[in-house]
Amino acid sequence: MTTAPRAAKTRTVHRTCNLCEATCGVRIDVEGDRVVRVRGDDEDPFSQGYICPKGSTLGALHHDPDRLRRPLVRRNGRLEEASWEEAWRAVDAGFARVFEAHGRSALAILVGNPVTHHLAPSFYLRPLIFSSGTRSLFTASTVDQMPQHVVSGLLWGDPSAFPIPDIDRTDHLLMLGANPIASNGSLFTAPNLPARIKAMRPRGARLVVVDPRRTETAERADEHFFIRPGTDVFWLAALLNVLFAEGLVDLGRLEPWVEGVDEIRALVADLTPERVAPICGIDAATTRREARALARAAAAAVYGRLGVHTVEFGTASAWLIACLNVLTDNFDRPGGVMTTSPVASRIDDREPGGRGWRMGRWKSRVSGRPEVNGELPAACLAEEMETEGEGRLRAALTIATNPVRSYPNSDRLDRAFADLEFHVAVDCYVNETTRHADVILPPPSALEEENYELTFLSNAVRSFAKYAPPVFEREGPADEDLYAKLALVLRGEGPEADPVTLHETLVREAVESLVGDPSSPIGGRDAKEILAALEGHSPVGKLLDLRLRTGWQGDLFGDKEGGISIAKLAEHPHGVDLGPMVERFPARLRTRSGRLELAPPELLADWKRVRAAFDQAVAAATAENGGSVEERSLRLIGRRHVRSNNSWMHNIEPLVSGRSRCTLLVHPEDAAGRGLVNGATCEVRSRVGRVRAEVETSEAMMPGVVSLPHGWGHDVEGMRMRVAKGHPGVPSNVLTDDARMDLASGNAVLNGIPVEVVPVAS
């Protein structure tokens, strides 16, 4: 008689979902080596049980048969499975060949936003980039939030100190170009935003949304104003105009540290609500009412995101949003906008002042676009690959990124990648970009890694900490081993280089830096003692534990009883909530002047572009012929769905099943005037490309504006994502013009693109 095998015992683990910025706590039920269920964690004090559709698919992503487990190496023109040893030999030989022929400047490094959810890149990307010897770094920042880096760097000296709306305590939240109900927040970590927004009304707080589409967030707002894409900067200037004209400016306690108020007053002196109204589409009375509401609320916050960052004047818009918050005494105060106090960071009560922040330290080879935050604009990548001459990019290292579906002018970039001499990709899929690679190195699954959201907890509305060990044993090398070995190979140490050497160096140097710094909380301590206290952790665990234990809530290696460490967090698997954001200024000012510089020269110079565009728009609005062809064309904007995250989550059946969401939203009036029929096919044309999409008429669209989601277009030969290929959608970045960008930051223009839309005969 045979005995049936016993079913594997179910265990439950608690982690943070790493599929978007919300950092929701999840309970994962596991049987053997299978995830059987993912739920929201009711005991997580930050997310309190909330989970979106993406979070429930963590197991499906881990078990996806298309997710790569072994490296791929190109043999005879085809990507085929290989051993790790063969893959590393191919990486070493390929880079050596390109460097010998063209020098290290021929290498481009491209980094995508999924890396910000993983610990190893947080500690290893910088040494990897340094080892490469190239200055050609491109990241998702210049198709996203680079304007905010510029404004934060120039105004208060820290490009990573983002002002976060204190949504749980505000009385009035003005939101532009953001749809957090769909995105779960962006540069704004606040899990369960639907509940947070719902909680505003009972306490008498108001939410006002400004967007060319009546989004899911706008549906829940107290008021929604349509605005023409790309004109936010003019409307923001009109709000400031009202503040100055009606004597509503109030700097509050920061007044001694703020300079540049008079310069801002002069910039907006004649941008009255009446002059701006015909351009942006918001009437003057509404503008004046909103300006007064911001000034008179007990606590108010102005928050702008992708819709105001990825336009021609994205930096100027981010700048004026900062000015509005400062000039209404809503900067660095509860209920306004605040910078965060992440647990894994120090809070120094230092005197205001520092080294300041610079950009333009080098420029792109072809167009001469300045470096910003160590990066070159994504919109310049194709021309850097195509243009002959010294420094032409002939090789690429792409890390968790799909630029063929996320950077401007997709078709051009696709051809440029196909023409490279060598391409290494760190990715778990063969997608539209990595199908061109010569070697693909798959990182471990997120469930095979330690879990701490180091980046996004730095943008959280509360000081929160949560750590979890891996759920499963790894099938391949650890993430930190992969990045360390890449760095060593790029350094020229060969395919047999041992990652341990870099691990030990990074940990030792981090410890020695802290004990050698008199201002450090462990300054003067014995480095050997600190290193011994870190033993027992993985290399990345040691670096994280060092950050946590020397942070403002850390245990300081025994000097602070009950302080935070990995061991302490292990006792609290649901996480530890250490309270809301706190005031950090003026001590956080790192400008050379030690003041909050509202009118830095770089932004004053950029204002000339804004002013010229305003004068041109005024002239066009008053011209008898209604302006140029471009002014009369439709304007294309993107959109986000809660089931999607850029281009990389379309291979999970539950997230893409049902009716296609990749449609062109068109206002019924625009559809009727162009012969477009709901459900029929249309062709969308821009200066650089054309696509065909299904028409979906919607009153949610502002007349004159159409919307297509980005990240789709999964029907190309060579990619190996079977579910995505069955739901291909339309690649909107085929229409995105790489010749247009926000010159102040290098950010790509993804919204407000002039397009023509015509019906397609069946």
Structural summary, described in words:
This protein is α/β, with parallel strands linked by helices and 762 residues long. The protein folds into 5 domains: 10-63, Single Sheet (N-terminal domain of TfIIb); 67-145 and 369-451 and 467-497, Rossmann fold; 146-349 and 587-601, 3-Layer(aba) Sandwich (Dimethylsulfoxide Reductase, domain 2), CATH 3.40.228; 499-574, no CATH class; 633-759, Barwin-like endoglucanases. It contains 25 helices and 28 strands. The strands form 8 sheets. The chain has a 7-stranded mixed β-sheet with strand order 5-4-17-16-15-6-7, covered by helices on one side. Helix 10 packs across helix 21 (601-622). It is globular, with a radius of gyration of 26 Å. The model is unreliable at 624-631 (pLDDT under 50).
CATH-derived topology of the largest domain: Dimethylsulfoxide Reductase, domain 2
Q: What spatial form do the alpha-carbon principal axes imply? A: globular
Q: Approximately what portion of the residues adopt beta-strand conformation? A: 15-25%
Report mean pLDDT, rounded to a whole number.
95
User: How many individual β-strands?
Assistant: 28
Give me the Rg, rounded. 26 Å
Helix content: 25-40%
Judged by helices, strands and strand pairing, the structural class is alpha/beta
- The CATH superfamily of the largest domain bears the name Dimethylsulfoxide Reductase, domain 2
Q: How many structural domains in the coordinates?
A: 5
The low-confidence parts are: 624-631
CATH architecture label name of the largest domain: 3-Layer(aba) Sandwich
The total of helices stands at 25
Describe the strand arrangement of the main beta sheet, using strand numbers. 5-4-17-16-15-6-7
N-to-C CA distance: 66 Å
CATH class of the largest domain: Alpha Beta
Main sheet attributes: strand count, strand direction, barrel closure: 7 strands, mixed
